[in-house]
Write a structure and sequence with these properties.
The chain is α/β, with parallel strands linked by helices. Helix content is 23%, strand content 31%. It comes from Streptomyces violaceoruber.
């Protein structure tokens, strides 16, 4: 069963059990981002929401939405896919001023909704594939709108976050009833930051909140992000990570392959889209040999050194570290690009030059504009020195 279908079923059963108990959580006195009273900030992380349209993602029994409307004057839409969870909210809080409850899939709902001024999810976004939820949230929020996410970081058994964008089994626990298996995207903070950056958000802070009992292993993470402004005429670039690179003396290469379909780009596991390439090995190989080797290792394509044209060197500084990159143009190759086992970059595809994607790796963006300065790509500045033409 697909992960999200498993989760839909689990939350329907959970809601039904709570309805049978006639249990409704009380409206809190302050917004609680963690399961533990008094741990973490309150609604202030959303900014001033008075009179603003706020989206509660996976609103459940509706108590957080009601708090925001009553205590902070927000106009809250609680979106909930589970029919039983939705019933819990409506049966208790129908008619509360400033609150509406909608039963729908959040990604589908946002496709036709007026953009919101803010959005938040308390323990719920991890049940939705981020490659589906995050682009929908970007389109469903106004520029500069806050997005606040409370997410599981380490579970009750001490199982920490994943470093790959894939769901894993976690259990919903309910007193006196069997646990409900779910599939959750429990991801490391850096991976959440990479995903949010890829889909048009700027991450402002990530905080980890351990359980107040030092013997308990569970840890919650709180991510504060903001939807970036639209940039309709320029293509964005970014580093793979917010962490500074380690000081090293390696030189990297990046290869441009241009076909009738466009240029070849792959997706790094950290989310950036980038050219084939990598570091020159300390074996005396030439730049051309590095391009040929990296192309074969990353894409499976076969090229000859004689078909590699070196463009020049790019030099920039990243957090005080000198980075040197050599750009190259590959004029001929054999085969079709395919994801290779154990490589960091895959999902190779051709992109027309007038339809380049956002989120290019900064080095790849620099190489592309050194080759074609007219390309509308934003990236950190770098000093380019062209090589002399081959004789």
């Amino acid at each position: 069963m697909p992960a999200e279908d498993t989760n839909t079923r689990a939350w329907q059963i959970y809601g039904q059990r709570q309805l049978a108990r006639a249990y409704t959580p009380p409206v809190p006195e302050r917004l609680r981002w963690t399961p533990w009273q008094g741990i973490g900030p309150g609604a202030e992380v959303l900014g001033d929401v008075t009179g603003r349209r706020v989206l509660d993602i996976g609103s459940g029994a509706g108590h957080h939405a009601v708090h925001l409307a009553r205590a902070h004057g927000a106009r809250v839409t609680g979106i909930e896919l589970s029919p039983t969870q939705h019933e819990r909210a409506v049966s208790t809080h129908a008619g509360v001023d400033g609150v509406e409850f909608v039963r729908a899939d959040v990604a589908e709902y946002l496709g036709g909704a007026e953009p919101f001024d803010a959005a938040y999810a308390i323990g719920t976004l991890a049940f939705i594939d981020p490659h589906r939820s995050l682009p929908a949230l970007r389109d469903g929020l106004r520029p500069d709108a806050p997005l606040i996410l409370s997410l599981l970081h380490t579970d009750l058994h001490g199982h920490g976050p994943s470093t790959a964008v894939a769901p894993r089994e976690e259990m919903i626990l309910l007193r006196d009833d069997p646990p409900l298996p779910t599939q959750m995207w429990v991801l490391a903070p850096q991976l959440w930051e990479d995903l949010l950056t890829e889909y048009g958000f700027r991450v402002e802070a990530i905080d980890l909140f351990p359980h107040p009992d030092e013997n308990a292993k569970v840890v919650q993470q709180l991510i504060r992000a903001r939807r970036l402004p639209d940039r309709p005429t320029r293509v964005s670039s970014r580093p793979r990570s917010t962490r500074a690179p380690a000081a090293h003396a390696a030189v990297g290469v990046g290869a441009i392959l241009l076909s009738e379909q466009g240029i070849l780009l792959g997706r790094h596991r950290r989310g950036t889209l980038e050219l084939p390439g990598g570091s020159v090995e300390a074996t005396g190989e030439s730049f051309e040999e590095t391009v040929v080797r990296e192309l074969a290792e990353e894409t499976g394509l076969v090229a000859r050194t004689g078909d590699v044209e070196l463009l020049g060197t790019l030099v920039d500084h990243v957090e005080g570290v000198l980075r040197v990159t050599v750009g190259a143009l590959v004029h001929a190759w054999q085969g079709q690009p395919l994801t290779q086992p154990d490589e960091s970059v895959g999902d190779w595809a051709w992109y027309p030059l007038d339809q380049l994607p956002n989120g290019l790796f900064a080095c790849s963006a620099q190489i592309l504009t050194s080759w074609r300065p007219d390309l509308p790509i934003d990236h950190p500045p770098a000093h380019f020195t062209a090589f002399a033409p081959a004789k």
